[in-house]
Records
---
Amino acid sequence: MSAANQEILLAVRNLKVDFRLDDGAVLNAVRGISFDIPAQGTVALVGESGSGKSVSALAILNLLPAANASVLPGSAIHYRGRDLLHLTPREMTALRGAEISMVFQDPMSSLNPVFSIGFQLIEVLKKHVGLSGKKARERAIALLDEVGIPDPHTRVDAYPHQLSGGQQQRVMIAMAIACEPRLLIADEPTTALDVTVQKQVLGLISELQLRRRMAVLFITHDLGLVAEMADHVVVMRDGEIREQGSVEEIFSAPKDAYTQALLACRPPLNRRPKRLPVVEDFLDHTATSIDTTERARGLRGDEALVLEVSALSKSFHFSEGLFSRRESKALKNASFKLAKGKTLGVVGESGSGKTTMALTLMRLTAASSGTALFEGRDLLQLTAHEAMPYKRRIQIVFQNPYASLNPRLTAGQSLMEPMHIHAIGADEPARVQMAMALLRKVGLPESAFFKYPHEFSGGQRQRIAIARCLTMQPEVLICDEAVSALDLSVQAQLLNLLQDLQDEFGMSYIFISHDLAVVKYMSDEIMVMKDGEIVEVNNADAIYANPQNDYTKQLLAAMPGMKATAA
């Protein structure tokens, strides 16, 4: 059946949503959008942060904050003959969860940490289905089994913190489908998950959709996922729909410049352009002048080494009861080399030891054993006084740009703090000038010097974090998921910036990420980790063309949107 002939389950018409800001100004978050969701179809709502995707979904469920959000007159959301915007609170409560359910992005903020997952599932069943007692518990166990939670009879009594991120998201999906809804809204349901867990969750949603004959509104900023999940795509920017059409139309012949930009910003797998295009290149109609030359990657084998790590191990000990302790080996005899001016990519799932390895190299956690030679000296054996000069030369950029900066310091103060600690710069005016120059280098105006972290976007905060590292002119920069939480266009800007800095200063990178396309684009050599061990190391192209380890093959097979990425 063609899309034009499908039954329409939900129709959004001229939806407008405004937010009243603290200073009295009005933010037009959604500006008159219209789209349809067919019965049993999948529609992807695509766009970057601030595009209005999640606001539109919350408007459908009447979950917008009443204190400062308002849906403007003339808006309509028709669901099976009823306008949801005109339902009473009681009618909307009855509909929400029973016929339209939502899976949110962060399960840990959606699940109550003080109640077991079984209790929270049963609560949904009591409210919307009328089940209680033994029948409700049996139904909760059956739902956990349906979404793939192992040993559901035991796990039904587990608390959220006792489950992995993927399992928590499965519980959220179980709660969403508990009442057999006709429409499931999935708002960035896999953003923080590993590529293999992401594939499992997406497969689960697709399987449940077919089995339960649901419609799905899939909200994401990753076009690679759209290629795998959706039938129809709606592209949003600044509260407006820029383009919509079938997946085939959007990916093969995008008409809007913004859609073209989103597709081009993603690092391709089949080539390595010297620079990634950014959104402004397309919106300013300069895409035709983008440099299409390739960037050489890989190692010859005779490069000078800047870091040589041997048998690095780290164990953590946990108390079990009053007298016993359990040992957990987070890192097991890791050995690798980092060439000067080159990038070592590190991939693996959560718990593989990637971040533990980075923290031990930075001496932010003590290694249990092993060596890390930098210019012939073992970094792990230095005293605190001896290590101080090396802290300038090895720096780290963390994943979360919102937790990396002190909220009480301006950007300028954050940049100048390490200068004071390490006596960099002749005097205060010289340090101010250095900080201003670094802000310009990472693409921020000098006015950013006087602003606080809350006044910046996530991408801008990450630029400040990189600039702070550059104050010490490091020779090795560890990027621990430094671009994973960013929109595609911001991610492209930062990847270009990192490559420019490497070209200019000859810096060496340890680039940690679960995004395999980004790792391949950035790396000369790739190291694959699993359960604290290194299972494979090879040149980036060789890893992708001919992986040797079964685990590496599993990671590559789980990569989403291959047809979109390689286009």
---
Amino acid sequence: MPPPHVRSLGPRGFLTDEEKKNLPKVTGALIRRILSYLKPYWPQFLLVFIAILLSSAVGLLPSIITGRIVDEALVGRSMTLLVKLLIYAFLALTAAQVIGVLESYINAWISQKIIFDMKNQMYDHLQHMPHAFFTSEKQGDIITRMNTDISGVSSVISGTLSSIVSNLAVVVTTLVALFTMSWRLALVGIVVIPLLILPTKSVGKTRWKILTDSQAKNDEMNQLVNETLSVSGSLLVKLFTREQREYEKFVTVNGEVTELQLKEQRSGKWFRVIMGMFTQLGPLLIYFAGGYFIIARADTALTVGTITATVALVNRLYRPIESLLNIHVDFTRSLALFTRIFDYFDLPNPIQSPENGQKPDVTDADVVYDHVAFSYDPEKTLLTDIDFTVPGGKMYAIVGASGSGKSTIVNLIPRLYDVTGGAVRIGGVDVRDFDLSYLRAQIGVVTQETYLFNGTIRENLLYANENATQAEIERACTIANLHDFIAAQPDGYDTVVGNRGLKLSGGEKQRLSIARVILKDPKILILDEATSALDSISENAIQDALEVLMEGRTSIVIAHRLSTILKADRILVVRDGVIAEEGTHEELLALGGTYRELYETQFRKVLEYETEHEKHGEHTEA
């Protein structure tokens, strides 16, 4: 669905109920914060304001010159003066247009520079947000803040801000000119303005109600299209043979959208008719009043040219005055936009690198969990007392039921999350005292779900070490049993993997992930069910590679396959937020506790399946 702020935006001149409920609180601090983004560009803003004032002043000249054309050139029957005045009017129009273009260009430049600054700030801020932020926040909301919201700042600067100044300048200069020419006609023209604006707002409100309903239906149709025509959605539709049903739903919604759009267009035509009628009412009243003053000799100084110029100038007042009457709506929406952006900027980031963070050598360093507690939700503790030590250079396996917190335990080492009690130490140093970038550079992680960027195999590998040579890349892929596969591709290492690695199989993606960690050459290795995406043949093919990779490194492995667990120096069993059991495979089986239960229900079944599969493979080959 479209982001909430897009759906909630009401028509110009009206605030929706949602907007009224969420009115931003106007404070001096908020205004100063907004202005801080404008401050670096104040010379350019000054140029814009000067251009607006010049454009407003020069824009008066064609109307005033029209009056002179009538009174002096036409009445005086002077062709020379007529041509001269027409040239003046043309030059004034041209000058106003040129100044307007200059103002628009500077405005656009300022807007894009501010957007550039804000996007850089937002991206940097989000890059350093903790992992918990990305697991809880909707990706669509993040992209909306990053793109739609910040891009909307352009309309605030080049639209709202400039519009306020421009409309004020036009209204002030026009009123001065009107009262200078004839205060009587000026008053008539001003009296007409409410007669134009009030009906316009009333008719407009009805029309925008239709537009709002139409927008809501469009959202519904877009949602249907997004869900059923996406890769996963279309697959689901096909598998459950719901093509006809989804088509019927689309036809229904599409029909409702079409009917609302036709209704809006019909109302739009009547709206324009009413607008045209009231727009003509003002000039007619001025002509009537002006004619009366001339015929009754109530104003001997009044001329036909003055009446003509007054009509032109009054018409110039309608749009800017209507816009200024809606200034509170534009202002409120602008503040709401900035408030949404600042809400993201103000999100706390508890996981930061400490000042002068430590960078100790962690080669063969012990990893110690000292009575660690952790919870995602303050009301529900996941880990209560995790206490164990992985000696430097050793490989420990962590097992436990699904949801017991195995992945959370290992995620505390690179500070994807921070403990809520106790401490995690590497070589005697609390991980919270490490320089954060240095800490993460020492740790290699292979996760169950491999993420690849939509680029080439080479680009995904170089993400671990951008200075790696081709020989180093090929060596890493050879160890991961991937080089032959890559070499067989037409583009070799320049093969594009597709979005999230879609063009590769699960096993190929996982092996690429392992090769990437090999290139990183970390001191501490974390394997979070790293072989879960592989069949037994693929797993056996890279098991030796993993053993080479783990050699001399402190390694923690979360595994569900007995073949992996048996290679561990020690096995840790997680249950109820603590390390319930610890020992070798034989020792834990002898205890007859949680590990024995896991062995009977999970590990042995997998082992029997793999053994049977291997026998079947041998029989087939025979």
---
Amino acid sequence: MRWSFKIVILSLIFLAINIFPVLSDSQEAWYIDQVFSNMTDEERVGQIFMPSISPLSGNGTQEMTPELQSMLKKIHPGGVILFARDLSSVEQVVRLIDALQNESPTLEQGDKIPLFISIDQEGGYLTRLPFGPRMPGNMALGASRSAVTTRRVAKTIGDEISSLGINMNFAPVLDVETNQNNPVIGIRSFGSDPNLVTELGDAYIAGMHDAGIICSGKHFPGHGDVDIDSHLGLPLENHSKARMNEIELVPFKSAIASGVDTIMTAHIIFPAYDNSTNLLDDGTEVATPATLSKSILTGLLREELSFDGLIITDAMMMKAIVDNFKTGDAAVRAVRAGADIILYPDPVDEAYEAVLTAYQTDQEMRARVDESVRRILAMKEKYGIIDPLVSEKNPISDMASRIAHAQEICLGEEAYAVEREASEQTVTLLSDRSNRIPFSCSEMKSIAIFTPTMLFTNETSLAVEEKCNGQGYSPEIFAYTYQNETELSEEQQQSVMNASLVILGTSSSNATQRTNEYYIPQFSRDLLDFANDYEIPVAGFALNQPYDIIFMQDVPIYVATYAGRTGGQNIHSAIRALFGEIPITGTLPVNIEDENGTVIFPMNSGIIR
């Protein structure tokens, strides 16, 4: 009797005796054994790959194409990752994911192994969905100090992506932001205190689980104290094991105890755990990043920290990897090190063929891959992605109803209410020199707004208009985008001199941007000096990271919004708070140091109003 028929018989027995559709440990193991034994070598190796569905360059892939279909049939991947370039509307995403699952690997017996459909939907700075609310990101939630709010935000994000058919989210970020010049983490971190990151990280994990989503803690063993972006180079983290145990590893240890499903690796060198080098074909030696380190993935994460979930590499197309290792070689090294899933290798067929060859010629590699495949199948069974007892996990079967349901979840008022209420708790007032807050719309004849991007300019202008118009006042608003400008025009000078208030938005994401001619250019410094000369009140808005005040410590009013690249309710909440509509309760979740390393605003700073 074919194993699939045995599953059906087992299901009927369970249903007949009114047992809930959950396998016991022994039944789960038997089921996984049956699935595994019916897989070919190619299908097993395919399960450990999670490619992008579209190339890095271009407009993305928003529907099933012959090229995508061919890749899925050739690689038999265990999952795929979606990026913003692949997504446009609720209906498009639901239909795309349905098409992907229809092309998921099919065993010779005709049984499907549905895909992990993954995404980086962290909230805030890293938000892939182009629709729905832009939930506050991690540092904003850190400013709120609320585990309850964090869990609610994560649950809402989880509900949204689940309604679309996405079952895995690469979140939360568990990196402790101890380096304000970090070019890649920044406001993606909950803060600089490992205990705060731990508390909110655990809450985020609970929220994902509330929504039935597989979550991932990242980037192990810690990406919070580097000054090189691993997308662009290979960072070095030279801390001792003692320091790592006191800071970087604390949130990961707690996440493991809290049942985090997967942990994503960091493409970073950690000599304290692995000081080995790799001899490449051209004779050069390259230090071993965590993603390729058996000492870190197996020795530290598996054995010392007792993590039994899935280990997923960070994207293997990042320059930290591709500039130093060949695609196929890197994939093989990652698997040997202990990785269960190879995320976004490019080109994926090269990585797949390299691992398949190693699998078929090396018994140690074969055992290593088989171990990962069993973990992957077990995770899919745990979350009902493959399920012998329920033929259709989603109770909504017809496409029209699924789309309508997803639109209600993603675009409905409930999700926007969560975003609005959460963002209200994040506004952080660091400076109010003349005790001017709250402002009154009745006293505003005109307001001059300057930000470095058109998106921020429009968002801030809209927030001011909504606030004052709602009170029956219509101050004249002069809005400017100062990107790449070098000096104030005569028109801008006149707008500032006539203004009752100047809002100066800045949006840096690293130290370089805080000193170049884009985010904190001479233009913004000159604008502040000009306004101060005429005693025009200036409200500095940190639209991204809170550190911009380093170069504008004389700004009369300074607010950290943690909005990231997309604005959203964080900006609206900041305006409403400055005009007294909502209380200001946020406190700084990081230290802010000046250029000499002196702390000018310690963690927990914040004027409560």
---
Amino acid sequence: MNKRAVAYAVGKLMQILALVLFVPLFCSLLDYPDLSIAQIACQPEVIGFIFSIVLSAAIGFLLSFLTKSERSNQGVREGFGIVSLGWVCLTFLGSFPFLFYFAHSYTDVNFSIIFKCFTDSYFEIMSGFTTTGATILTDVEALPHSLLFWRSFTHWLGGMGIITLAIVVFPAMGISGYQMFKGEVPGPTTDRLLPKLAGTAKILWGVYLLMTVAETVLLWVGGMNLFDSLCHTFGTLATGGFSTKNASIGYYQSEYIEWVITVFMFLAGVNFLVHYNVLCGNFKTLKQNSELHFYSGTLLVAIVLVAMSLFHTGLQDTERVSTHYHPTQVSQLDIEEHRQEESARYENVYQCIRSAVFQVVAITTTTGYTTADYDLWPNMCRYMLLILMFWGACAGSTGGGMKMVRIMVAFKTAWREIKKVAKPRLIESIRVGDSIVSGSKVINIMAFICLYLIIFTGMTFFMSFFIPDLMTAIASVAATINNIGPGLSGVGPVENYSWIPLGGKWILIACMLLGRLEIFTVLVILRPSTWKK
């Protein structure tokens, strides 16, 4: 691997981040309208933004200046190195505003406090960039607007990929972007729309921007203020899930807002190349795209089953709910009151369907927004949501999980092998729509699924040392490696990740990165031979 070429590209990414950080820095003016510029500059989060900007620009300039001669010497390994190190470094530099803000709340600052604050800050920003939506914040609404905007903005950047954005400008710097694109874009395929990769990236970002404007306007018209509309749009289209409210979307108690967000969550889970083709008038892609059909069918079946279960069975009884793990002690009376409040959401068929639609789409697309405490739902519904976390959305979308196309290929491969037992001489190709999936791609997909499940099992094993409840340990890994955010039990929709020990948080940080970069990109970099020339 040409380490100098990797360093040059990462340096340029840092310079781009320095420019991006001016946007949330400007938002700090909204928090202190009565203070002078000098007084605003003394606020801890503002100091953090300024520090991040200066550090990103300085290190970025130094790296790119010292390694400029090697900028064009890139290959496959360099591309994976740029993507993996880029995400780690950008998260590190983007975490300082939170670090300064968290540290400011302590009167006696020592190394252990700094490390705890850094871990929480890194966790929050990694959760943002990877569009996971898991949070360590116990009171989201207490944060300044600048930090609320920054955590949501990291979703929006990470959804389509800040590295994909950089590909638009990298060719002018003499940097080849295709290998980065292969490491960055979610899903098992990296189809191009135009011969030049920068053209493809521009098209993807154009569609992304158009949908961002559309949803923001619709939410604004529906009663959200402009700030909340932007932040929730960032979380929706990136399938991230950070909200500006403690109760997430449930705070607004608005059917209109729920349905708007549901529609855009569904659209965000669709391959963005499908959106582009439809916008160009090519509606045949809706009929021909078998992954889209499988995605839609999966959602429909899950919604019907969940809605029927909610209507006929209702919520779990108080005695069973009390057995769920809670990181802090909760009285039986509080559990009963909470259950009664939630029961009011399912009084008729429409309310059951409405809740089922929102939560099934939110979990399957890995957005993670909530309107109800689905941890109180019947175990069948909880189990179904846990499975849907792994299935994820379509390849080429901003969603996480294993992706629908991989699940399709796995089912088709399994069915072919079953038929071969009865007909040993059977020769049958695996098809996705009209396309034949090559044998090498089938092997790649099956290897990915095996690695995914092995890593999930291993990470759950390690988390069981930090979390006393097995269901919570399983759910925490499932919710982070699939980039969802809220899980079940101790990390359910009304809980957060603040109580998890520091070691456990670093394991979950690794899960977020592995899930966002789809395992292979990270594992390749961990091989020592990758770094050899």
